[in-house]
Specification:
There is one protein chain. By secondary structure, the chain is mainly α. The protein has one domain (2-210). The chain is 85% helix and 0% strand. The longest helix has 34 residues, at 73-106.
Amino acid sequence: MMGMILKDLYTLARYSRFLLVYLLLFGVIFMGQEGAAFGSMVVVLVATLSISTFSYDDQAGWDKYALSTPVSRKKVVLAKYLLSLLLVALGAVLGLVLTFAAALLRGGAVAMEALVTLGASALLGAVCISVVIPFIYKFGTEKSRLIMMLVYALPALGIAGLAHMLSQPQVAAIARWFEASAGALLVAVPLFCIAVICFSYILSVRIYQKKEIQ
């Protein structure tokens, strides 16, 4: 199984120059802004690289080859989820480093809110990927592109819509509630994300076990 993860990492390394271009682009757009906007975008960008490996596998006919070996379908799916979590962690570390770098360039310090935003971005990235992967196993990468866009766009649109609809006192009240519930949320939110990932993995295994590989 480690070999399958390394295979995907080597494949992604071949396209690392495109990632560097994206990072430079986002750096120009977000580096001068306050908070963890740049770091959060890096977290999401790196995390979504795992989705690209499905396309590369389809082009190379990897699944057909992998299933001709003693590797079980469950391990093939598990390798994809472990790769996704690894990339989320890598994105979080890279985002944290860049957030500190941006703060140093501005001559300030990293606020606690920025660190919370980075953590939330990592959890959101893991959940979004977990929602998308079962659809990829069911319908394939090409047919799942619209679903992928919706999964990543809807949370952002929902937050933007709420921010536009709510009045300033309502926003302040919500902020106070989050501050008062911070301890419980630090436990509940990661547990919820773990539950989503586990459910997604079980669902993906069931789909992939029934799928005919051509």
